[in-house]
Design brief:
Layout: H1 3-11, E1 14-16, H2 21-24, E2 33-38, H3 42-54, E3 59-62, E4 68-70, E5 75-81, E6 90-92, E7 95-99, H4 104-113, E8 116-117, H5 129-135, E9 138-139, E10 142-143, E11 148-155, E12 158-163, E13 169-170, E14 173-174, E15 182-188, E16 190-191, H6 194-211, H7 233-239, E17 246-247, E18 250-252, E19 260-262, H8 269-287, E20 296-298, H9 308-311
Parallel strand pairs: 2-5, 3-5, 4-20
Antiparallel strand pairs: 1-2, 6-7, 7-15, 8-16, 9-10, 11-12, 11-15, 13-14, 17-18, 18-19
Helix pairs in contact: 1-3, 4-6
Length: 314
């Protein structure tokens, strides 16, 4: 039995071969993965990464894969699929404790029903709580970092709590480090009328439906908004006439120009990446703006295109 399988079996964690990133990401592209490990609990997840680190085996955490573009080659590392690590939501007054694999849209509904406000603007963001924490996901004036009281992380095989205010929460970027596994969080929300919270959440969702492609295979906004620009990236790309532009199986969404969508059974990451680079090149040449990826690019070599030192804020 391979070492990975042996460790997973010992800890009671499902280990699978033969999965592709195309099965695990919302863009539905990306190559084969050596092993996908799917822990069910925070304790299992903490234990498995400890064992893998000890054995010198490389791994990367994945939630719902709604912000990842993985390339088409074979990925020789382990993907820790956290979307099954859902646990149960615990509400104690204004404090809400949730595991990293729990669905963010589901959590927004749960807390709205409990009369707790603070994340209703995030109701339409697909993905897990862990992915949202990692990216400091945000929309319509709400960001998850602003309401995060504590984060549970994996340290030396154990579940450890760190205070939310010890973390830097920036625009789609945090000070969590590569190799840090987020297990769950405690949010501090504000009591409010459930009807009003729901109305605000519905409003955010309908604004999203009116401006973003619905049901298409995307990863949300591909690029960040440039800090120095008064107009958003979507508008910049739209004004260059690039809506509907195609590279093989990848298209600039005709609905929102900062969304790249993929089409067809055999869609390729290579097409999405080529289209993204074409957009960057034109924006650089015509506007003098260097667009930064919001989507994470995962290389089969294990290196991401966005520099690690930028990601960690060092
Ligand atoms: C249609 C659409 C609309 C979107 N709209 C928005 C929006 O309005 N605002 C916004 O911010 N985002 C948006 N996104 C992007 C995406 O939904 C968010 O970034 C989301 O929070 C990602 O969660 P995930 O579970 O899918 O993370 P994944 O894509 O699986 O992972 C994203 C990153 O987080 C890391 N990660 C995931 N879980 C953990 C963990 N437990 N511990 C450590 N690292 C972890 C991964 O390694 C990866 O680096 C949109 C995406 C789509 C498809």
């Amino acid at each position: 039995m391979e070492l990975v399988e042996e460790i997973a079996t010992r800890l009671g964690i499902r280990a699978e071969r033969g999965k592709r990133f195309a099965d695990l990401t919302s863009l539905r592209v990306g190559g084969a993965i050596d092993w996908v490990l799917t822990p069910d609990t925070e304790e299992q997840a903490a234990a498995i990464v400890y064992e893998l680190d000890k054995a010198g085996i490389g791994w990367r955490p994945l939630g719902s894969g709604s912000n990842v573009l993985a390339d088409d080659a074979d990925h020789h590392y382990i993907v820790l699929n956290l979307s099954n690590m859902k646990g149960e939501v615990h509400i104690d007054g204004e404090l809400v404790s949730v595991s990293a694999g729990y669905s963010l849209p589901r959590l927004c509904i749960d807390v709205a029903r409990a009369g707790l406000s603070g994340i209703e603007g995030l109701g339409g963001i697909p993905g897990t709580v862990g992915g949202a924490l990692w990216m400091n996901a945000g929309a319509f004036g709400h960001e998850i970092g602003t309401v995060t009281e504590k984060v549970r992380v994996a340290r030396d095989g154990k579940v450890v709590e760190v205070p939310g205010d010890s973390i830097e929460w920036n625009y789609r970027h945090t000070s969590f480090r590569e190799g840090e596994l987020l297990l769950g969080a405690t949010l501090r929300l504000k009591p409010d009328d459930p009807e009003q919270i729901k109305a605000r959440m519905d409003d955010a969702k309908s604004r999203r439906l009116a401006t973003q492609p619905h049901g298409a295979r995307s990863a949300g906004c591909f690029f960040k908004n440039p800090p120095a620009s008064t107009i958003g990236t979507g508008k910049i790309i739209d004004e260059m006439g690039m809506k509907g532009q195609r590279r093989g199986s990848a298209v600039v969404s005709p609905v929102h120009a900062n969304f790249i969508v993929t089409e067809g059974e055999n869609a390729r990451a290579e097409d999405a990446l080529a289209l993204a680079e074409e957009i960057r090149e034109r924006v650089r040449r015509e506007q003098g703006i260097e667009l930064e990826y919001e989507v994470e690019l995962w290389r089969a070599s294990g290196e991401s295109v966005d520099k690690p030192d930028e990601r960690s804020g060092e």
